[in-house]
Design brief:
homotetramer, 384 residues, four-stranded antiparallel β-sheet, 9% strand
């Protein structure tokens, strides 16, 4: 009996470890850590629940140490521990682990030392693929963004010098020095508008109105540049990520390069965890799926069909039947490529041979299905 | 005479019922309900017109109950009452009907209970097709938007921790705790700028300026992502909705798939209620219309021409005559497909055969018209 | 002598009338009227310069009456006075002329009556072509914009009801009624942030932060929709306006429809007043010009060359010589079509025959020039 | 020994002069000048470090005088001193040099006179190429932007006149005159929201809410126009700048014009200073490089390979090997053309002959490499 308890414990331990390694647990720990850290700066809460908050913070820190250790061991196995330490991810790990203990050792009071735990927020960015994309947009559009920044600085300096001249007599504490006037200009140009420094003269109002409208113009340019850059970058990154997956689907390998490129531009990649419903029976469908990696199960009668990597499903929705006729769910973590109805129709217009191939495959599968059902009716009973 | 009064009443009742089922009545009821609910929270108005407001609110609630009942009966006829209840639309219906009575039964005071009527605002979204589109944009761009959100959170936490350190000595009530400092950071990063918490030191001003500029950058990225996503989604959704309608127009059925796809991308769908003017004589025209569903009447002399589903009109505007020569109005609720002058010209350059077909049809119709007028002059008088 | 004085007066009168009919004079009068009207509301200025301001306002009003009369006479000649009165332009004219006198007649005090002169600002929009374009964007994207508006309203109502519940105990004057709370929600959702109503509780701060972030999201969607719509509309309107002009240039008439459409998409229309420099010698050029309407003079030695409607110039900049070799200026108000270097190169890659035609025309003109110079050297002296 | 000291001095002087002529030094001087100027307006700092700040400002001024002189001499050599003075760059130079001394000579107090040094911020824009691009966007979209501005003015005037009427009784100092009311309208329409003037009546709140929503709409339109314009302009300017460089690469000269145009649209220009790493061994690569101007060194064993203008490298990353196999760095200031993986794949689909050419060149180079290594093994020892 003690034996079975140990087994149970081991089992619980294993599933706990598995949960601990999951991204969900990671985000929960980061969230708990940040909330505890925030609460720890409020004297009232510290008075009521100080030890609990402290314990929570230490637990989070321990979790990050373990996580960093696991990552380091993985890297040293692959032989690149030092490289890891100086990679962005490694630096974020170190920033999450070291500052707080060092500050405490240096004699900083705990509430101040734990403020450094706000660096844990950087861990949120550690495994986000979208970040590389955003960074690329900033790098590619650097010249244009720098021009907007210089425009911003020019308006800032000239406006604050002028406002300083106009308002310094009337409001010496608000506009008496250029730094104070610059603060007003920043607050106004960004359309934040705290209202702690406001011009009072007619001329000041006129200048203020001009600065606000420059703020909108600057803002518009900035947004325009980022929107342009982001559109290009997002098309590019989707294409590159999809290309390799598309190569794995046999159905596409027979395509000539131009058709291959065209369909790669159309497909959208989606990662589906294990045992998740992809298609629900009775819903309206407007896309078909190709399985780049993984496996799905189609719940048709009498026996569910298993479709492996390289096959496709849901094509009936694109060939006329918009109501899904069966549930489909993943049996393994899978990477699916989605072909949308609109893209499918465009593709079919340019490449009718593709439509015929998909149609033939669909019919073949349907006849398979009928035959299997026929066989079942004739003899064997298959338990559900 | 009493009989005729009953008939009149029945007739009024019928037209009232028809009005009550129209979207306009629905929006009026929702609007009246929200206004009454808002007024009900003001003690002065409650003192003056309390019973009237209360009556208005109960009427609106009754209307929603009836509406929900009608919808439920419709669904149960079709056999899916339960599915309706758990659909977004059903949940919105329940949220509009149940909370207020339940709150009143639980003994909540009427002014507080009727606050729950603010949930009626959700009914505005119930039948808006654009919502699905906006939701899709958020889903498709989820990864990129999440990256921007994480960027936002990182700046938020680091800035408020730093500001807390800088300003807590000078302004203990404003920046003395991290939650207070976080509030400042949110207000500043979103460029809202209430001005209830403002840094006073030079270092605080510098950090504040940085945070505002980060706010603009974040904002720009966010807008860029949504703009990109929305552009793609709007093209896609227009294409899909138009495709099925285009298939119904015989004129397009002879086109090869590539031309069909091309013209589907160009056409814009518009739904016109009964007895509405589509073209006014003497106006400058820059588009032609295909009738996907419904019927229009062209007011040509001597007898108006009726054009049914699958025909087109207004093509003269694209073939040289920019001034409309006749009034055209719908006789039934119709779905029209609009082909713009710019798109028409592009299309004609690629597909001259289409231009010829439209030209031929236009000429045929004109000769028809002349012949009919000739016939009329020779003999019969047609009552208008 | 009196006679010559009369002639001079008549001449001055004529040039004054010409100036008075010019757009510049119109904008000056509108500007002066708006400034005078604004100044008239300030008691101090009214005390100092009341009669002058009053006189200025009456002059502006007189100008608008004359302008309206001229417009009406023009329209009644063409037979559509009534139609004019009910057109947007006619309504703006009436709103500029009637309200102030009517208010004065009804016994409203002058400072209040002249406030109605703020309607003159509508006259700025009267002759702006871009307005139709903006209006079209709003109409075409109406469904999507309505969805965003409904989203905005939903967040507005739910947030203000929640904030009313959270804060009404602590701040009864700021959040004690739903209208007050709605005012806070509008000010916050639009990121205006006056700071007159600010939540004070922790829960209120959390809700406020959420509302601000919703504000940014709504804003982003709104901007995205307008950006998408505007891009499409601007392409379309440029194409339509350019098409008719392109048809007038003989050089393009030989093109097949596809090439014609392609070049129409590339050309940009620009209207140049009389006697204006289009090209300056020695500057770097990156475009060529086609003359759709009007006339230009090329200052080549020995005699300037006059180029009329349908010809082109500045093509050397695209064929290798980036430094302009001669001044070119208009001799009549002209409409030019600009072909940019980037578009020219793309065009040349697809349509090499066009490049050859432009090249041949350029060479022919150069040899013409040489021959003429030769002729001049041999004999006749042409006065500049 | 004195001789060597002089030599050292001369050497230091030369390297100092070289540094002084570099853009970095220029930006440092501008930055120092602006900071000193800002500090000089604060009485406390002037008391503590007045002479130092003053000296710093005079030094910066001297630097700008020298810089202007060098520029002028360069221009007068080329024969265009006057033209330079009236060019934007020349005016900025004059604005940086003259105003402060003139103000001091006119007897303005130093702190006020040095305020004019804020004009130095204009020097930041002097050599930024992106500025011309931004200016072009504003010029090309002028009509649309003017429409938005007029819309803004209309809302501004009508809203402030209405708010003046509504609120003047309750808040005579805030809304008693139209100028004061206009100030509120500007602050609100730009969503700045200082909060110094806030409507208090219910009607005022309603109008205020409308104005804020108009502000968002105006903002969205403005951003949309700039985004559209910027996207087009950025494509155009990249194409033009790249075209000339592409012509210099022999590999592209054999392409037909359509392919040439296509690849020019894909390439991105980047300028790399001397001795800078372009590719790092072991990194993941997703682009290849063409050398338009300059020279790079590929660190392959046993002897580094030097690649000159017109060659390409890094192509293995696009042909299957995503891990870089050698370090590549520039030996001279170089201009590289980058071809991205996504564009490369699209290009290969349309132009398979290009893929074959790149493949062949890659193989040729690899065999070269092998042969050289072979030669080295057989005999000669090459010093690294």
């Amino acid at each position: 009996m003690a034996n079975s308890a140990v087994v149970t414990l081991v089992q619980y331990g294993a599933s706990l470890r598995r949960f601990g390694a999951s991204p969900l647990a990671r985000y929960l720990v980061i969230g708990a850590g940040l909330i505890a850290m925030t609460a720890f700066t409020v004297p009232d809460l510290r008075g009521v629940a100080g030890p609990w908050l402290s314990a929570c913070l230490w637990c989070c820190l321990a979790y990050f140490v373990v996580e960093g250790g696991v990552r380091l061991r993985g890297a040293s196995h692959a032989g690149g521990a030092l490289r890891l330490l100086f990679s962005p991810s490694g630096i974020v790990d170190l920033l999450g682990i070291l500052p707080v203990p060092i500050a405490l050792l240096c004699g900083v009071s705990p509430p101040s030392a734990w403020l450094l735990a706000s660096l844990w927020v950087l861990k949120l960015a550690q495994e986000l693929p979208g970040f590389a994309q955003l960074a690329r947009v900033f790098v590619l559009e650097a010249k244009a963004l720098a021009s907007v920044l210089v425009l911003f600085l020019i308006v800032l300096f000239l406006a604050s010098a002028a406002m300083h001249l106009i308002e310094r007599a009337g409001q010496p504490t608000q506009f008496g020095t250029l730094p104070a006037s610059l603060w007003w200009a920043v607050v106004t140009l960004t359309t934040t508008g705290y209202g702690d420094e406001v011009p009072h003269t007619a001329l000041g109002h006129l200048l203020g109105a001009l600065v606000m409208m420059c703020g909108i113009a600057t803002f518009g340019l900035w947004t325009g540049i980022l929107a342009t850059g982001f559109a290009a970058e997002s098309r590019r990154s989707n294409f590159i990520q999809t290309w390799d997956l598309v190569s794995k689907v046999p159905f596409f390998q027979s395509l000539d390069p131009a058709a291959f490129t065209e369909i790669t531009h159309m497909l959208r990649r989606v990662e589906v965890p294990e045992r998740t419903a992809v298609i629900r029976r009775g819903r309206v469908g407007d896309c078909m799926y190709f399985i780049a990696e993984g496996e799905v199960q189609v719940d048709v009668e009498p026996v569910p069909v298993i479709l492996g990597s390289g096959t496709f499903f849901g094509e009936l929705a694109l060939l006329g039947d918009s109501i899904r006729t069966a549930n489909v769910s993943t049996t393994k973590p899978s990477t699916l490529l989605i072909l949308d109805l609109a893209d499918f129709r465009t593709l079919m217009a340019h490449r009718p041979e593709l439509a015929r191939a998909i149609d033939a495959e669909g019919k073949r599968r349907m006849s398979d299905n009928l035959r299997r059902r026929e066989l079942q009716r004739q003899g064997s009973v298959v338990p559900s």
